[in-house]
Amino acid sequence: MSDVTHSNNLPHNNDSSSDVEAKHHVHTTYSPIPIYAAPTIANPGPLGLSSFALTTFVLSLHNAGAGVPANGPSNVVVGLAFFYGGLVQLLAGMWEFKTGNTFGATAFSSYGGFWLSFALIFIPGANVTGAYSTVGTAVLERSLGIYLMSWAIFTGIMLIASHRSSVGLMSMFFFLFITFTLLAAAKFNDSITTQIAGGAFGVITAIVAWYNALSGLLTKDSSYFLLPTGRLN
């Protein structure tokens, strides 16, 4: 019993053996609450890439004039941009925060915000484009050029930040940077030809994004084959 009282920093006294055992029992009592392992978090990357790819693909076909007039309305993209490219991609970004992936969280949350803001510009009730009715269409086009140029700058930052990720991811940001740059130039210069070129690069961007998404879905546990992305780290 002397070992027990010493290990528990209890003073030596004339306590009975039952008292010492009771004190020992108090110090060795464990919580009856069961401990469960933390739930696993699914990879949100393929979802974010898929929502980005599909929305980019549809808008880029309109910009390129593939099956529709290049200078025609593209309002059919608004609903897609708001819900899939915007809301779903924003949620994927929030889940990336949970996994600890700062790069993925920044990319998906930001481009989700891009699609939400893009949709808002062309929602009639928001009256964003209507506010330019007093100054003319040319001012609206230049404002959209500034908007797209700003996203080109952000995409350039993400391109630099992805230099140790994979060839697939770097390629996606590279083509997206070209896309934003061409579309911004088209707005500044009122050039349909430049817009069509931007749409073509946007289609390439979407295809690369879909490839990256499929690569993330085809894991060793779910597929008989894998898609290489050219890891750089």
Describe it.
With 233 residues, this protein is an all-alpha fold. The chain has helices at 2-7, 17-27, 45-64, 77-99, 102-122, 137-161, 167-189, 192-217. The protein has two domains: 1-35, no CATH class; 45-217. Residues 1-21 are annotated as: Disordered. Residues 1-19 have a biased composition (Polar residues). Pfam families: Gpr1_Fun34_YaaH.
What's the short story on this structure?
The protein has 233 residues and is mainly alpha-helical. It contains eight helices and no strands. α3 (45-64) runs antiparallel to α4, α3 (45-64) runs parallel beside α5 and α4 runs antiparallel to α5 (102-122).
Give me some keywords for this one.
single chain; 233 residues; mainly alpha; 2 domains; 8 helices; AceTr
Q: How many domains in all?
A: 2
β content, as a range?
Answer: under 5%
What is the CA-atom radius of gyration, in angstroms?
Answer: 28 Å
Please report the distance between the alpha carbons of the first and last residues: 59 Å
Average pLDDT number? 88
Could you list the spans in which at least 5 consecutive residues all have pLDDT below 50? 1-13, 20-26
What would you call the shape?
globular
Helix share bin:
55-70%
Number of helices: 8
Biggest beta sheet attributes:
none
How do the helices and strands follow one another from N- to C-terminus?
Answer: HHHHHHHH
Number of strands: 0
Structural class: mainly alpha
